Amino acid sequence: MNKIFLYISILSVFSACDLFQTTSGEKNSKLIAKVNGYVLDEEGLSLIFPENISSEDSSEVVKKLINSWVKKKLLLQKAKLNMPSQNKELELLISRYREDLYINSFKKALLAKELDTIVTNDEIRTYYEKNKVSFRVNEELVKFKYIALDPKHKKRTAYRKLFFSKSRNASFTLSEQSNDMESCFLSDSLWIRYKDVQKKLPVLINYDKNVVLQAEKFITKTYNGLIYYVYINDVIKRGEIAPLRYISKTIEQMVLQQRKLQLIHKVQEVLVKDAIKNKQLEIY
Q1: Of 273, 272, 270, 209, which is closest to residue 237 (Cα–Cα)?
Q2: Which of 71, 191, 232, 274 is deepest in the core (most CB within 10 A)?
């Protein structure tokens, strides 16, 4: 069977009893409140009860929910009494809202069942290459690392030598000694917004950005009683194209959004064709 026709078969899976379940017959749920013809029972309360509420707070939350429900029903009753009996604009809004609820619920269930949510690295890279000019950054990005030491630290000279070395072994050895430092960040392969770097390193705030934002730049500065060794590995300036690694998660979401739109579009097209074929559709 053609894949697209499988989408239509989902209509039978997501029947009214799945998406828009209503109860028939008598309910065994305990009655909690009643406002004229409106009834709130335990089952109805459970549907509006928020998650992750502690047992200590639950009693107070229940009281607030019941009070809110009562007020809404009283307002609704008053509104119905005072609104014109034939309000076409209101009825149209209600009708559209109801349609949107049904359609959006179906779309949500359809996507949950049929959407392929796995986006490969090759797909991300392909999307990036095709749309690269759209991914210009509006702020500076840097790859950096730093260590902060007490100027009197007995291993300061040794740590400084390891920090300035470009050897992988030196970097690994230095990271093993991180607990012996006042603070540090040694993952200089990650792209980070420069304003976040400044928050982490106030020692850089008073520096001219044009001086700091240079690839392969070392900075040594004493600040608040500590000596900082900072290395700017690489820089992306404002207006330049963002590196793939920095926006890969964003691209993944964009690819998924495209798939969602394509899936919904295909389903809509098949529904139209099917309606025409079965003579269920007439356009005058």
Answers
A1: 209
A2: 232
